[in-house]
Amino acid sequence: MAGGSVSECKEYLFKVLVIGELGVGKTSIIKRYVHQLFSQHYRATIGVDFALKVINWDNKTLVRLQLWDIAGQERFGNMTRVYYKEAVGAFVVFDVTRTSTFEAVSKWKHDLDSKVKLANGDPIPSVLLANKCDQMKDSSNNKTLMDKFCKDTGFLGWFETSAKDNINVDEAARFLVENILSNDQGLPHEESNGDRIKLDQQTVAAESKSGCC
Questions:
Q1: pLDDT tens profile 54-67
Q2: Which of 25, 36, 32 is nearest to 92 (CA)?
Q3: What's 71's DSSP letter?
Q4: What is the C-alpha to C-alpha distance for residues 160 and 152, in angstroms, rounded to an integer?
Q5: Four-point Cα dihedral 192, 198, 204, 205, nearest 10
Q6: Element containing residue 31 per DSSP (H, E)
Q7: 79 by DSSP, 3-state: which?
Q8: What's the pTM?
Q9: What's the average pLDDT block by block, 10 residues per block, for the chain (213 residues)?
Q10: What is the C-alpha separation between 136 and 123, in angstroms, rounded?
Q11: How many Cα atoms sit within 13 Å of 1 on the Cβ side?
């Protein structure tokens, strides 16, 4: 009987990207979400860093989130295609105190959509994070504009976040995971098309020549 209940439990491993310009707080958001820590003194991420968050989603579902913290200076480089591979969700982060980081959001989203898709061909679910909201002098009345921007660019939605004050970090992650789980037909499947595997292997081989091991 116990064996039967265990077999009903679903376990998922989701690769989630955290991308955006240099210094917008990507590492801080991940550290807050995974370890409940915050520091003013994180060093700039070089290349890619990883963190794992295990979520007991409900009594039948265990979710392991593999969060890929991709350095801002890596943007649109040749290696991003390798970094993005097999991701099923993404956060795009900008700093509310630096307009230039918001202006780069569309480029990040376009880069993401052009390099990774779900198994069914749809764009991967992505959420926009307006980070460092604790530094805003007043709560901006741009909700309508942000809602429209997300609709126009294909984001599921957006959250004002603060890794420092722990504002909306868990909520944003839960929102993204809910959308990933609702995409059952788009999640990676064990049975893969032979041609697809062959194509993937060729792609990796070609890109690994210009990248590092």
A1: 999 998 999 999 99
A2: 25
A3: -
A4: 19
A5: 160
A6: helix 26-35
A7: coil
A8: 0.79
A9: 59 94 93 84 68 92 92 65 91 96 95 91 96 79 88 97 95 96 60 41 43 38
A10: 32
A11: 0
